[in-house]
Structures are given as C-alpha cells and as structure tokens.
Amino acid sequence: MRSDIIMKKLIPAKTRLQYQLVKRYLREHILKPQQFAQHSANSLTFNQKLSHYQEIKMSHSFANKVHNIDLCLEHINHIVIEPHQVFSFWQLVPKPVLKNGFKTGRNLVNGQLREDVGGGICQVSGILYINALKAGLKIVERHSHSIDIYQEHERFTPLGSDATVVYGYKDLQFQNIYHFPIQIMLKRLEQQLICNFYSPEHLPDFELSFKVDLTEQLKCVTTYVNEVEVATNHYKTL
After folding, report:
1. By the 8 A CB rule, do 195 and 132 touch?
2. Per-residue pLDDT for 5 more than 90?
3. 174, 187 contact by CB (below 8 A)
4. Model confidence over 164-217: pLDDT tens digits?
C-alpha cells in the first residue's frame, strides 16, 4: 500500500488539511514570500480589455453550481494585480464550506464524481487560467484534473485548459509580469460565464491550442501559447 494512502487512512482529514495549510503558509509567507494581490483602490483608467467566454452547462445541480460560481465572483471581482504581484484563488475565496455560503454540487474528489460542497467553482479557476495564458502572464501554480469526465459534445472548454482548485492543497496562482496593473472582472449572464482582464495599457491576446494524444487509458494533452509549448497534462478516462 502506498504511503499516501496509508496516511489518508490513519490521519484525520482535518489534521491533514491543517498540515497542508501550515506548509503552504511557511512556503509562501516565510521561506519565499509572495506579494499577493488584494482588494485596493486604484485611480488608473482601465480602458483595455481581454475577454474569454464559457457556457455553463445544465445539470441536475445547476442551481447550486451557479450559486457557488456567483459567490466566488463576489470575492474575486475588482481585484487589481499590481506589477509583480501574484493572483491567488485561495487568498481571495474562502474555504468552500456551508458556513461560508457554499452549496453542494458535482465535484471530482479523489478520482470519483460525487456531491460535495463547493461543486462548480473549478469553472471559475479554469476561465481565469485561460485568460492568464492568453494575456501572457506567468503561471505560478496550476493543477489539471486527474480524470477526463466529459464526452466531446459535453465540453464547455478544451481538454487541457482546466485548473482545479482544492482548498489547502491545490491553488491557481499567476503573476503580473507587466509594468502596469491588471484588474479582474467576472460576470455571469444566465448560462454564460465571462472573464475580463482590464488594464490601462495594451494586453496581448495570445492564441491557445491543445494537442491530444491518446493511449488505451490516458489522454496526454499539450498546451501551446502562440505555438510554444507551456504545459503537458495526463488524464485518465472514466
């Protein structure tokens, strides 16, 4: 039996999470401090815009999913990433639990689809990841899902463009490499999720492409930005 499986069986989930939170805090705030973006006033005029759109697919838990998405938007909207600062999903969005207002929805947990609190929020982190790639920002931390759960006709985004977030364990972080600030605004219009990056100067709009190579049990996806390889991910199939 693998050591990580033994650890999960013997150590309570709450203790494991606390350990991960302490380890992350030491890494990001003590050993190698990061300048994380926070909500703050900025008097600059943000008249340049880079946008990306996604459909929010209907499902049996659609109402709870859009509730969770809207809650994330409340915490992220208007954030300004100053030059050299890092956007962190979990620095802004609280732990997805009932007492923080989140509801249950479909989630991929330990390689299995099940109902869990916070279902649907990965669509927010995913669309942010895509816009960050398009803008040429530096990806500091990003994790793909372990399993491809969709058929081709069910996809709302290309395989390889996802960014899963798990509180305490997996974050989405990207850094503003430009000399001007970038403001993030997201909105939902019924079944459409829109991500806008605003800036006082021109932002690039790089072309993204995803190449899928198939094996019997895995899909290997290579991500390209303006034809330059930036990431490779492997997905199991259901």
Report:
1. no
2. no
3. no
4. 999 999 999 999 999 999 999 999 998 999 999 999 999 999 999 999 999 878
Alpha-carbon distance of 219 to 217, in angstroms, equals 7
In DSSP notation, 128-163 reads HHHHHHHHT-EEEE----SEE---GGG-SS-TT---
Handedness of CA 27, 93, 72, 166 (dihedral sign): positive
pLDDT at 40: 77
Place of tokens 């991960």: 20
pLDDT given at position 113: 66
What backbone phi and psi angles, to 5 degrees, belong to 179?
Answer: -90, 5
SS3 for 182-219, per residue? Answer: EEEEEEEECCEEEEEEEECCCCCCCCEEEEEEECCCEE
pTM, to two decimals: 0.93
Q: Comparing C-alpha atoms, which of 76, 100, 18 is closest to residue 195?
A: 76
Q: Residue 121 burial (CB < 10 Å; 0-12/13-18/19+)?
A: buried
CA of 142: how far to CAs of 20, 47, 102, 111, 155, in Å? 16, 28, 23, 18, 20
